[in-house]
């Protein structure tokens, strides 16, 4: 399967998985507080917000994996603030940012908010794309230019890791992710990444291994217990 298709599949799975598994529906979401995560920012124009959890706050039982985007058009009167009340602008809004949009959407799905609040985020929320969501490890191959990604860092890397772990009673998943400087977290700076591509291994809580060399990655999994 082409690498770009795998990347898109992982991105879609991540969005749906996080939306479905981030917490109990209805526990953190109320009717008059429409909270979501920014998918896209069009500077000076609008932001697109994933409001899936807010939209399904009253749902019971099993729910379909459906994403609910909300296009919040920025008008001159729209007030943008940080959660502590300090003034912000659309230039401060990054992809992945958790926001409160007022008023909540009505039946007509207006999309012209009076207020947007940039909410404080937990470590788990900021790193949700990287942390493992299984009882095992998550390998993330992060790159800048997909066309220059070496063949050894493409799909076979996951098959090789699976073969290494099959007799260890351990599990791992893998994902390919393009570095996004417009994301709410600058992973390059926070993780001390010196160059791309880089291989990052996360458990459910933190980064446990980082390398630029495939042999070192395989050695890590060979000795992992």
Automatic annotation (TrEMBL):
The UniProt entry, under SUPFAM superfamilies, shows: Thioredoxin-like
Q: Which PROSITE patterns match?
A: PROKAR_LIPOPROTEIN
Task: Give the top-rank taxon of the lineage listed in the UniProt record for this protein.
Answer: Bacteria
Its name, as the record gives it, is DUF3221 domain-containing protein
């Amino acid at each position: 399967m082409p690498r770009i298709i795998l990347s898109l599949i992982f991105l879609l799975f991540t969005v749906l998985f996080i939306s479905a598994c981030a917490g109990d529906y209805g526990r953190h979401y109320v009717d008059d507080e429409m909270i979501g995560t920014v998918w896209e920012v069009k500077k000076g124009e609008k932001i697109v917000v994933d409001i899936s959890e807010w939209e399904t706050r009253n749902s019971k039982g099993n729910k379909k994996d459906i994403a609910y985007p909300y296009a919040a058009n920025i008008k001159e009167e729209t007030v943008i603030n940080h959660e502590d009340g300090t003034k912000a602008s659309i230039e401060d809004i990054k992809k992945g940012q958790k926001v409160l949009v007022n008023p909540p959407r009505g039946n007509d799905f207006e999309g012209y908010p009076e207020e947007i609040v940039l909410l404080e985020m937990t470590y788990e929320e900021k790193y949700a794309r990287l942390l493992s969501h299984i009882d095992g490890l998550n390998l993330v191959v992060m790159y800048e230019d997909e066309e220059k990604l070496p063949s050894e860092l493409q799909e076979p890397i996951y098959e090789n890791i699976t073969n290494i772990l099959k007799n260890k009673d351990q599990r791992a998943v893998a994902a390919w992710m393009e570095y996004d400087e417009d994301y709410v977290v600058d992973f390059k700076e926070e993780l001390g990444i010196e160059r791309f591509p880089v291989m990052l291994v996360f458990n459910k809580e933190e980064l446990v291994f980082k390398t630029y060399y495939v042999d070192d990655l395989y050695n890590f999994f060979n000795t992992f217990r």
